[in-house]
Amino acid sequence: MNTQTIPTSNPRLTPQEVAQFESEGYLIINKPVLSQDKFDALKAFFEKILGDLPSNERPEAMDVPHFMHPELLKWALDENILNLIEPIVGPDIALFSSHFICKPKGNGKRVPWHEDSAYWKGLVEPMQVATIWFAIDPSTKVNGCMKVIPRSHEGPKKGFSDYDPVDMTHSVFGSEIKKEQREDHRQVYIELQPNECSIHDARIMHGSEPNTSQIRRCGWTLRFASTACKFNEEMFAGAHQVYLAKGQDLGGNRYADPTRTYPEVMKKRGAMSRYKSSH
Question: How far is CA 110 from CA 172, 186, 211, 237, in A?
Fold first, then answer.
């Protein structure tokens, strides 16, 4: 995925870890991402956002919170996070999206098997997006941690599998990769403690079980790409924004103002079916 040859100034991944990511489509980082004080401040800020969530909205669906809370960018674009992603996408980095997916204890919904790329087809070309899944809470088999199918990003469909509808009563969104196109027996559970993370390719098959435990499970997904990718503003149709995280633009893209909120984008987003599913 790395389209650059310039080395990062302070890489947090070894060449072996980058090679594992490229080969397997994911990487687990079982060590602290942020300093403890920064992590504590992020968690406190998240708790405030969660506390302000309307009672009729599910906490799994806290998509693009940085559009209305630009304060989040000081964590999303922290050098400790960018130094994890730079060895993968290169030194010129765009923040494509972010999402708090918070499964409440007892009735947290499952996330069906899917590929992020299937939802973003046409929005970014080439599809070279890597996601940091950053643990706010413990994320284990007990409370519905993410699971992936290794090497599925290089499978026959290469991130664009066929989907069947599923009941949204117990699922975060309404479709799932057809069973015959998955190899569920190869699934790997991504278990993390707070302030740890994993990184996965946008094309890899992943999902998670419901949270029926008494332990909340929250993660913050941060989705990054090289600025050499082209972000399709015509398909965004005013319902999405991309931010320049580091370096310079290489693809002729326009970027959002990191100091302002975007209520008009959120309004447009709510009216468009493309952006109603959270993943």
Answer: 6, 19, 7, 30
199 token code pair:
């990184």
> Buried b vs exposed e over 68-91: b needs ≥16 C-beta within 10 Å?
eebebbebbbbeebbbbbbbbbbb
pLDDT of the residue at 272: 77
**What is the DSSP secondary-structure string of 12-52?**
SS-HHHHHHHHHHSEEEE-S-SS-HHHHHHHHHHHHHHHHT
pLDDT tens by residue, 115-169: 999 999 999 999 999 999 999 999 999 999 999 999 999 989 999 999 999 999 9
Cβ contact 103:143 at 8 Å? yes
Longest Cα–Cα distance of the chain, Å, equals: 48
Distance CA 154, CA 269 (A): 31
CB 110 within 8 A of CB 145: no
Q: What is the pTM of this model?
A: 0.94
Please report which residue ranges of the chain form alpha helices under DSSP H.
15-24, 36-51, 73-76, 79-89, 116-119, 233-236, 263-271
Of 6, 30, 26, nearest to 18 (Cα)? Answer: 26
Q: Which has the closest alpha carbon to 201: 227, 224, 228?
A: 224
**Would you place residue 3 in the very low, low, confident or very high pLDDT band (cuts 50, 70, 90)?**
very low
> How many angstroms separate the Cα of 232 from the Cα of each of 60, 128, 240, 255?
26, 14, 10, 12
| CATH numbers and ranges of domains, the chain | 17-275 (2.60.120.620)
pLDDT tens for each residue of 188-241: 999 999 999 999 999 999 999 999 999 999 999 999 999 999 999 999 999 999
- pLDDT in the model for residue 270: 85
The C-alpha atoms of residue 99 and residue 84 are separated, in whole angstroms, by 18
